[in-house]
Specification:
By secondary structure, this protein is mostly helical. It is 77% helix and 2% strand. The protein contains 13 helices and 4 strands. Helix 7 packs across helix 8 (181-191).
C-alpha cells in the first residue's frame, strides 16, 4: 500500500515535475526565456485556453466532455466581426456570453433530454457550428473592430486585460466549485450519479448547467483570443478542444469525473503554452508542434488513468479494513 501511495504522490506531482523540467531545459537553451516579460507573455497567450479549461473542468467533473468549444470559438469570432462590430463594448460582451450560453444549452438539451452521450452530441455540434460559421463568413478572414483590437493589446497596471479576465473567471469558478452547495453537487454527480440522484440531487439539471457554463467559457475564450489576434481565419479555434482537455487533465481533473479544480486547469494551460512558447523561442520546426501536443495529451491521459486506478484500489482496501 505504501508503494501505491508513493506512486500516487508522484503521479499527482507529475505535471509540476514536467513543468520544472521544461522551464529548466528552456532556460539553459535560451537566454531570454526566463524573464518576467516572457512569463507575462506566456500567461497572456494561455488565457483563452485557461478560461476554456475552467469551463471544461465543470463538464469533466460530471464525466462529460465538450468537443464543440473550438467551433463555438470560431462562430463567436465571426458573429463579433460581422454583426457586433461598432456596438458598445458592453453590448458586445453581453452578446458573446449569450451566444456561448445558447450553444451550451443546445448541447445540454440533447444530452439530458434525449440521453445521448456527450461525446456524440458535441462531436456533431462541432461540425454543425463550424459549418454555420464558415457559411456566414464565406471562409474569408473576419476582422474585428478597433475597440476589440485595442482591448486585446492594452493593459491595466501593466497586466494585460486577458490576464485580468482570466483572474475574474478563475475566482468565480473557484468560489462556485469549492464554496457553494452547487459545487458540492457537481462533485457528487461526478463521483456517483445514481447515488447523487437517490440523495435528491437534480442530476439532469446539474449536467445541463455545466454544459451551459462550458459554452459561456468557450465564448469568453473566443473574445480574449480574437481581441489579441484582431481577426479570425477559417482555422480559428480549429482543434482547440484538445489542448483545453489536456490542460484540464494535466491540472488534475479526472476524465472519469468527481475530481479536479479550477487552479489546476489554469496551471495545465500555462504548462501547455510554456511548451509552445519554448519551441517558438528555439525556432523549432513548426511540424514538431502537433507532435509535442500529442505527447502532452497522451501523458495527461496516461497519468489520469493510472491515478484513477490507484485511487480506486486504495479506496477499496480502506473499505475492507474498516
Amino acid at each position: 500500500m505504501n508503494n501505491h501511495r508513493l506512486l500516487l504522490a508522484i503521479l499527482n506531482a507529475a505535471p509540476l515535475i514536467l513543468f520544472g523540467l521544461i522551464v529548466v531545459t528552456l532556460s539553459l537553451l535560451s537566454d531570454s526565456f526566463l524573464s518576467v516579460a516572457n512569463f507575462r507573455n506566456i500567461v497572456n497567450q494561455a488565457a483563452p485556453v485557461a478560461v476554456m479549461a475552467i469551463g471544461m473542468t465543470f463538464v469533466l467533473l460530471v464525466k462529460g466532455v465538450d468537443l464543440s468549444i473550438g467551433s463555438v470559438m470560431y462562430l463567436v469570432a465571426v458573429l463579433m466581426g460581422l454583426y457586433l462590430s461598432g456596438l458598445p463594448l458592453v453590448v458586445v460582451i453581453a452578446a458573446v456570453l449569450l451566444i456561448g450560453l445558447v450553444f451550451g444549452a443546445v448541447n445540454a438539451t440533447f444530452i439530458t433530454r434525449f440521453d445521448i452521450a456527450p461525446f456524440i452530441v458535441t462531436l456533431a455540434t462541432l461540425f454543425i457550428i463550424r459549418g454555420l460559421a464558415l457559411f456566414l463568413s464565406g471562409t474569408r478572414m473576419v476582422f474585428q473592430s478597433d475597440t476589440i483590437q485595442t482591448m486585446g493589446r492594452s493593459a491595466l497596471f501593466g497586466v494585460p486585460y486577458a490576464i485580468w479576465i482570466l483572474a475574474i473567471i478563475a475566482a468565480i469558478g473557484w468560489v462556485v466549485l469549492s464554496q457553494t452547495p452547487y459545487g458540492r453537487q457537481i462533485y457528487a454527480v461526478g463521483a456517483d450519479p445514481h447515488a447523487a440522484e437517490k440523495a435528491g440531487i437534480p442530476v439532469r439539471r446539474i449536467v445541463f448547467s455545466v454544459f451551459c457554463i462550458c459554452g459561456v467559457c468557450a465564448a469568453i475564450g473566443a473574445f480574449i483570443s480574437v481581441s489579441q489576434i484582431g481577426a479570425a481565419s477559417a482555422t480559428f479555434g480549429y482543434q482547440k478542444e484538445f489542448p483545453v482537455i489536456a490542460a484540464a487533465v494535466l491540472g488534475g481533473t479526472s476524465l472519469f469525473g468527481g475530481r479536479g479544480g479550477v487552479f489546476g486547469s489554469i496551471f495545465g494551460a500555462v504548462l501547455v503554452q510554456t511548451t509552445e512558447n519554448g519551441l517558438v523561442m528555439l525556432n523549432a520546426d513548426p511540424y514538431l508542434y502537433p507532435l509535442v501536443a500529442a505527447l502532452i495529451i497522451f501523458l495527461a491521459a496516461w497519468v489520469d488513468g493510472r491515478r484513477t486506478a490507484i485511487t480506486e484500489r486504495l479506496e477499496r482496501r480502506k473499505i475492507r479494513v474498516e
